[in-house]
Amino acid sequence: MNIKKTTQQALIVDDEAVIRNGISRALRGIGIRTKSVESGRQALDLMRERHFDFVLLDIRMPDIDGVTLLKQIRSRYPETNVIMITGYPTIDSAVDCIKLGAIDYLVKPFQLNDLEASIEKILPIKHNPPGSPVRSNGLEIDSEKGLIIGQSRPMKNIFKKTLRVAPTDSTVLITGESGTGKELIARAIHSHSSRKDNEFVAVDCSSLVETLLESELFGHVKGSFTGAHQTKHGFFQLANHGTFFFDEITNLTLNIQAKLLRVIQEREFVKVGDQKKIKLDIRIISASNKNLEESIKNGDFREDLYYRMSGIPIHLPPLRKRKEDIPLLTSHFLEKFSRKIKKPVPEVSPEAMEILQDYAWPGNVRELEHTIERILIFEDSDVIRARDLPSFVTERQGEFKMFSEDPLSLKELEKIYIRFVLRRTKGKKTEAADILGINRKTLNLKIKKYALY
Questions:
Q1: CB 3.0–4.6 Å: which of 171, 172, 252, 438 could bond 285 by disulfide?
Q2: How far apart are CA 67 and CA 176, in angstroms?
Q3: Number of continuous H segments (helices) and E segments (strands) in the chain
Q4: Lowest mean pLDDT, pick from 150-154, 355-359, 433-437
Q5: With 70 as the cut, is the pLDDT of residue 440 above it?
Q6: Fold for domain 320-394?
Q7: Collapsing DSSP states into helix, strand and coil, what is residue 315?
Q8: pLDDT at residue 130 is higher than 60
Q9: In CATH, what is the architecture of 401-449?
Q10: Distance of alpha carbon 231 from alpha carbon 273, whole angstroms
């Protein structure tokens, strides 16, 4: 075996004892502790009591079928990986399982080598090199600030880019919609750089008063203007030898932009009312939720400053473009606010999670965070259901808002529309079939095809 000894724990869910025993022996042989159950309900009961790193899950079972259980595991325990196993393979079921978040799909009877290969897909995720800032559920900012949550492919690529650029002194421009976490990425860059022991100074350019902006950035000497009763250090001086973060940089006036360009080029500045030049050793990171190239065309932003600030561009995708991170983020915020208000951490029903993933989240991660906090404050149930979600999430402006997003295939549209009709009819298949213009048998086949249980 090529797999190193590990301390991971696995749950085997299969109604055939011979399969459970065989997998259990194989896993114990490489140091993985196992528990085995013969039904989906037993699996859920056990997972409420203890953590499992991964689950080997049979698709056909007498009570809860494997696909339904897979959805519940991905919703309630997003950090737990799932490998599906079946004796009745089809291409559609394999594709559906992978889309729903399964790591792999094994066909019985499988060889030990096949099982090992599947487990090797999981172990690198769970076992990062010692000292690595990359975790199974995100990127570590530092020991105090915690993690940037995400395990989707776009976020993993951003984490790699962040760690590559951090040790350099290159200027970085972070773009993305409001609430996507631009300042968190900036802090991560600082925390993994040689400047980490010095100051990280963040300035929200939209909150600075224009008349005091120059004084705030560069500082001033006593008597330089009315109200300057004493000499004051500006943000640049406070950030010396550290990192300076300009949030929403497009809010700087053209006058301040010209002075900032001079600071970047000459690495020195002068306080307001003074003539003495102060040497500056800082790294500059900036962020914007606007299209800077458009701002340049409109004459609101200097082109020469743009090229100075955008040495390394990093674009953060909106939450609607990385919906697979929503269960993980939801779980993180539930734990965070449950600790804060001293409540047990509730579960999220599969239907509620599906609605959360369908919502467009115009405010992105910040909006999701505030929504979860609000739910926890006003709801006392141990399971968050669809009815517990705010109306702005459940009453979406048009179920087919996705037409304004990336185009969808006919197959994906059919799946979404059938799910929509089933929701509207509260699961009444005869009524749903009538609305869809098909018979109940055809509807059942499509429900099975798209795993809309």
A1: 172
A2: 35
A3: 19, 19
A4: 433-437
A5: yes
A6: Helicase, Ruva Protein; domain 3 (1.10.8)
A7: strand
A8: no
A9: Orthogonal Bundle (1.10)
A10: 10
